[in-house]
Amino acid sequence: MKISKSTKKKLFYEMARIRMIEKNIASKYSEWEMRCPVHLSIGQEAIAVGICQNLKKNDKIVTAHRSHAHYLAKGGSLKKMLAELYGKETGCAKGFGGSMHLIDLNAGVIAAVPIVGSTIPIGTGVAWANKIKKKREIVVAFFGDGATEEGVFFESLDFASLHRLPILYVCENNEYSVYSHISKRQSKKRSITKIAKSFGIKSEKMDGNNIENIYTKTNKIIKKIKNKPQPYLIELKTFRHLEHCGPNNDDHLNYRSKKYLKQWNRKCPIKNYEKFLNKNNLVSKKNIKDLDNIIKYEILNAFAFAKRSKFPKKSLLKRFVYA
Amino acid sequence: MLRKKKKISLADSIKEALILSMKKNKNVLLIGLGVDDPKGIFGTTKGIDKLFKDKRVFDFPTAENAMTGISIGASLMGVKPVIVHQRVEFSLLSLEQIINQAAKWFFMNGGTKSVPLVIRLIIGRGWGQGPQHSQSLETIFAHIPGLKVISLSTPYNAKGLLISSIEDKNPVIIFEHRWLHEIQGIVPKKYYKVPLGKARIVKKGTDLTLVSSSYMVIECLRSAKILKNYSINTEVVDIQSLRPLDIKTIINSIKKTQKAIIVDNGGISYGISSEIIAKLYEYFSSKNKNFNKITRIGPPDNPIPSTRELAKYCYPNYLDIIQNVEKLLKKKFKNLDKYRNDVPSDQPNRNFMGPF
């Protein structure tokens, strides 16, 4: 599959945008105005963008605690996301959910929750309803390597396979569950893709930092799912740049080896793609500068919106306990 | 509904509520392990799968947590799932999805989308079912804001409450006691609702209030009948809605009778009776009223063993309630023994043999 020049630019733009938004959140975090845990997506942008660029607006996604990239890549409102982080009534969840409960139904972002693995069955249920109602929409469920240790992961795969549900399970494997390395949590003999296969679900491994590869491969998979409802699982190795939760780098704690860090830092999906586009004369330094300015302006506006918005009133506290 | 009898069992009234709801709303689906098997969840879902052309009844993998999560996901897309677990204890595997997700969904997304979901939980008792098949765990669910928790006790109310629950926009947990499935009552054939959030005066009285729910309402009514012979006119209140709790109806009854026993269907420590007595204390102490005429009774603080010889000490019955009335009223009723029946304590009645 050939990727058009404009799509290439779009892929780059979307990744650069998410990176810049996350960096701005990190730098403004110390103002102590965003008072909620943030799990930044820096380093893992390629997966969110590569997949979501293949989705239609009415396709749905569910995600977990590290959800900013998925929300933004699927078209979730930036203003509402930042307002949510600031705890304001204009937030996507009126300030009731915070960074770990992003939602934007207009963009097909159904849910994000921090309990590991918990949106896997919920996404499966959305796909089930789509199948029952004969809708040609698909669901993408994003989760990490830790989630594949949860019982609901297995329970959901079984149901999705049994009913041939139109869902793409996306495991972003960054090897760490907070500070616990995958080697301490999973047997070396264990394979996430083989687990899926044993349920009768097609699966494959991909490089989580190669945007074009992700884009073209998932384009095919998503077409297959839409043509004939069936579940699919992909596992993408990737790397989180910052600490598990918070705005900082915590590599002084030495939980990841110098060699590991060096190796992964060479694989930054955005820097590498910029180099590639540059080398192939697809974007110039000036193009990139222009894009930067567009994004900066959008971010500036969105932060200003979040900051000037009001906190929700006390009277709202009881209003959303029951519908 | 093709039936001639006015009186039907509570199991049949549940079945009628399900069928009528499914006819009225094509999005209503029945979900659960064994929901379409030959026995059909003690008859409550028996044969329903054959009444509908489209597939509406889904037998499910033995995966309670995913079953709940999948139902939540489906409910977000306009499906109305009614889950059933053959014992309360199986639902404990799905507490994460119930408490973290379903109960808080509407709240944590700032009122964007709610989870309209019904979960029927069956309480077991008797015939040696033992520690993991005879718990009344209403209080675990009633503790959680965002859930509505309903307890059934008569065929009439079971049908109306189930229909209301299916129409509700929130997650509703319904407790059904296994010993109530066979009880008979007059049930209209039509689609009707009994509102959630309301307690019910089962029997009017003036001298004493018994407050209870689920199967223990039956024991309270037995006590009331006997107490009449001792010139005690008892009022019996069925709590019916454990969350939200209709404390007003209970307060109004006690204002009239001045005396009450809260008869708990589950363990009393941190239980439903604890909450009711706390609320009564808050109300009556603020009015400077005498509070020493309110007490409670319920299963003791231990799991229920299988052997009938010990399980019999774990369930208060109508005579235990009456003995508590004696203490409360500082009276001694003569010849109480003549009201003792010889139905073994591990059977709801002589005709009903296990296994359940």
Overall shape of chain A: it is globular
How helix-rich are the residues of chain B, as a percent range?
25-40%
Number of helices of chain A: 12
Gyration radius of chain B, rounded: 20 Å
Task: Return the domain count of chain A.
Answer: 1
Distance between the termini of chain A: 47 Å
Mean pLDDT of chain B: 95
Question: What does the secondary structure layout of this molecule look like, with pairings?
Answer:
The complex is a heterodimer of chains A (323) and B (356).
Chain A: H1 5-29, H2 45-52, E1 60-63, H3 68-73, H4 78-85, E2 109-112, H5 119-132, E3 139-144, H6 151-162, E4 167-173, E5 176-177, E6 180-181, H7 182-185, H8 192-198, E7 202-207, H9 211-227, E8 231-237, H10 258-265, H11 269-279, H12 285-308
Parallel strand pairs in A: 1-2, 1-3, 3-4, 4-8, 7-8
Antiparallel strand pairs in A: 5-6
Chain B: E1 7-9, H1 10-24, E2 28-32, E3 57-59, H2 64-76, E4 80-85, H3 88-91, H4 95-102, H5 105-108, E5 117-123, H6 138-142, E6 148-151, H7 155-167, E7 171-177, E8 184-186, E9 200-203, E10 208-212, H8 216-228, E11 234-238, E12 241-243, H9 247-257, E13 260-263, H10 272-286, E14 294-297, H11 308-311, H12 318-329
Parallel strand pairs in B: 2-3, 2-4, 4-5, 5-7, 6-7, 10-11, 10-13, 13-14
Antiparallel strand pairs in B: 1-8, 6-12, 9-11
Helix pairs in contact in B: 1-7, 2-4, 8-12
